[in-house]
Write a structure and sequence with these properties.
Elements (H helix, E strand, L loop, with lengths): L1 E3 L4 E2 L19 H11 L3 H8 E2 L4 E2 L1 E3 L8 E2 L2 E2 L3 E2 L7 H5 L3 E5 L2 E6 L5 H5 L9 E2 H7 L3 H28 L5 H12 L3 H5 L7 H5 L9 H22 L4 H15 L7 H9 L6
Antiparallel strand pairs: 1-10, 2-11, 3-4, 5-6, 7-8, 9-10
Length: 278
C-alpha cells in the first residue's frame, strides 16, 4: 500500500470504459443507499432489494460480465454506464484510491506500485495527468466522506451504549457474552455476519425512510438516534433482560460495520477491554 500526498501526479483521468464497475466489492452505508434511491427515483427499500446484497449493505455484482468475465454492478448498464453516477457511493468515487483515517488524519492510498487503472484501462496513460488533490476534487467526495465518518461514529456509538448498559446493569449483564458475540462475528463471512441481525430490524437498520439526505452528518445522527430509541423500546416492551439489549446494539453495529470499515477488534476493546485475538 502506497500513501499518496495531494500533490502526487497520477494518470487518473477516467476512460469511462466501465472496467471499475465489474468484479468489485462495494460496501454502502445507509446514507449512500438513500442517496442512490434519490438518484434512481426509487424508495430506499426498493433500492435495497433490487440493487444490494449482504442484506442491504453491499452493491450486488451479478450483472452482465465484462471482457474479463467479471460480473457487473446491478446499477451499471452496458452501453450506458452507471445509471446513478452522480449519486454513486464513496468507494466508487475514490477508485482506484483507498481512504483511511489514522489518529484523526485522513490518508489516501493505492494498493501497490502500479495503479489498477493502468492495467485495466491502458489508454488512461494517453489522457491528461492530474494530481491526487485535483482528482479527488473532481469526484465530489466531501459529503460522502462526511457520511462515512459520521456513520463510523454512529457504529462505535452503538457499541459504547452497549458498554454503558453493561456498566449500569451490574450483575444482571454478562460482559463476557457481549465479547463472545463480537468474537464469533469476527470469524464469520460478511454474509453470515449480516445474518446475525434479526429480520425485523432490517428496514430500520439499512433503509431508514423519511430522513433528509442533504446533510449527511445530520442524517447519520438521526439514524443513530432512531436505532438507539428502537432498541430501548423493543426491550422495554417485552420487559426483556438487559443482555438482550446489549447483543441487539452490537448486532446493529456489526451489521453496519463493513459499510465504513469499522473494526470489530476495537468494538471488543470497548466492551471488554481486550483484543479479539486474546
Amino acid at each position: 500500500m502506497q500513501i499518496l500526498e495531494a500533490d502526487a501526479v497520477l494518470p487518473l483521468t477516467c476512460t469511462r470504459d466501465g472496467i471499475c464497475c465489474h468484479g468489485h466489492v462495494i460496501w454502502v452505508n445507509p446514507w449512500e443507499v438513500a442517496t442512490l434511491a434519490d438518484g434512481l427515483q426509487l424508495s430506499v427499500a426498493t433500492v435495497r432489494e433490487r440493487y444490494l446484497d449482504c442484506r442491504g449493505t453491499r452493491l450486488a455484482f451479478d450483472g452482465p460480465p465484462d471482457r474479463r468475465g467479471k460480473p457487473g454492478c446491478r446499477v451499471y448498464a452496458s452501453g450506458v454506464g452507471c445509471t446513478a453516477h452522480a449519486h454513486r457511493p464513496l468507494t466508487c468515487r475514490l477508485y482506484p484510491l483507498g481512504r483511511s483515517r489514522v489518529d484523526g488524519a485522513v490518508r489516501y492510498y493505492h494498493p501497490g506500485e502500479d495503479l489498477p487503472c493502468i492495467e485495466l484501462c491502458p489508454t488512461v496513460t494517453d489522457l491528461p495527468t492530474m494530481t491526487v488533490g485535483d482528482y479527488l476534487n473532481g469526484q465530489d467526495i466531501v459529503r460522502s466522506e462526511q457520511a462515512h465518518d459520521a456513520y463510523a461514529r454512529v457504529i462505535y456509538g452503538l457499541v459504547a451504549v452497549a458498554r454503558r448498559v453493561i456498566e449500569l446493569g451490574g450483575a444482571e449483564v454478562d460482559a463476557g457474552r457481549a465479547g463472545d458475540f463480537l468474537t464469533r462475528s469476527a470469524a464469520l463471512s460478511p454474509a453470515e455476519r449480516a445474518a446475525t441481525l434479526p429480520d425485523t430490524w432490517m428496514e430500520l437498520a439499512t433503509a431508514p425512510a423519511g430522513l433528509d439526505i442533504r446533510d449527511p452528518v445530520q442524517f447519520a445522527q438521526a439514524h443513530g438516534a432512531l436505532l438507539t430509541s428502537a432498541v430501548q423500546r423493543a426491550v422495554a416492551a417485552v420487559d426483556g433482560p438487559l443482555n438482550e439489549a446489549v447483543v441487539l446494539y452490537l448486532a446493529l453495529a456489526v451489521h453496519l460495520a463493513p459499510t465504513v470499515g469499522a473494526d470489530l477488534a476495537v468494538m471488543r476493546q470497548i466492551i471488554v477491554g481486550a483484543d479479539l485475538t486474546s
